[in-house]
């Protein structure tokens, strides 16, 4: 089964998993090191002649001679050693003609599959680093260790380690025969609807979360369900777990402020042009696989 956008073994994380602290210097000296700078959650993308991730050599451009302590090692990508770095500046650095810092939500549809996964990984790791600059236990500053893959508290007697985490979220297409249950949030483009989704809460199984979210948002009771596929969603660091579920009840009653509308759509109505989610989203895939079994 083809992987969802952002998913797949695009980076060999195991090859350099136990790399020592000299891996940075060796990769730079050997010419195999490349950098993905992240500015305000945006990643550099080459627009022409065809869209691709921009992998910056260390020996040129605005990052030549940078402090290596701020680098995060991602892994091996097609024989290159890839690092990422957060750019904390009011304006983005100039990277050359045809290169821009792009919003990944928009760029993902244009990038090759592996490139999209690579920059999504970079964005997620920078989000982790940015949100763990201070210890959640004692408040002391943290410092990176293990080539940027862990943040360690500097507080005496604390030294808590913080590892990258993902937030599990369920996303489900609820069906009733030839009808599918979709909702829309305030602020979405006019006419756009999507599947029901929400984060898994402490103490919940995935199945419990599916039933709670559907009932909470639409008043529909979900019955039998089956897992479909998953998608890393780096906005900022979610893991979307896709399900199909059958409805046990059919009367829609919006239960919270998450949705401004929810209703049943017939297959023919969806095929005829109702605005669906972004094609790179797992929600789009869930709908398309139901429309075209």
Gross geometry: globular
Q: Would you give the CATH topology of the largest domain? A: Nucleoside Triphosphate Pyrophosphohydrolase
Unreliable stretches covering 5 or more consecutive residues: none
Average predicted local confidence, pLDDT: 91
* Strand fraction: 25-35%
DSSP summary: helix tally: 6
* Topology, number of strands: 16
- SSE run: HEEEEEEEHHEEEEEEHEEEHH
How many distinct folded domains? 3
Helix proportion: 10-25%
Short description:
The chain has 293 residues and is α+β, with helices and mostly antiparallel strands.
Could you walk me through the main structural features you see in this protein, from its secondary elements to its overall organization?
- This protein has 293 residues and is α+β, with helices and mostly antiparallel strands.
- The chain has 3 domains: 1-131, Nucleoside Triphosphate Pyrophosphohydrolase, CATH 3.90.79; 134-164, no CATH class; 167-291, Nucleoside Triphosphate Pyrophosphohydrolase (Alpha-Beta Complex).
- It has 6 helices and 16 strands.
- The chain has helices at residues 23-30, 104-107, 113-131, 206-218, 267-271, 282-291; strands spanning 33-39, 43-46, 52-53, 56-57, 72-77, 80-87, 99-102, 142-145, 150-153, 161-162, 167-176, 179-184, 196-199, 222-233, 238-247, 261-266.
- The strands form 4 sheets. Strands 11, 12, 13, 14, 15 and 16 form a 6-stranded mixed beta sheet that branches. It has a 4-stranded mixed beta sheet with strand order 4-1-6-5.
- It is globular and about 65 Å long.
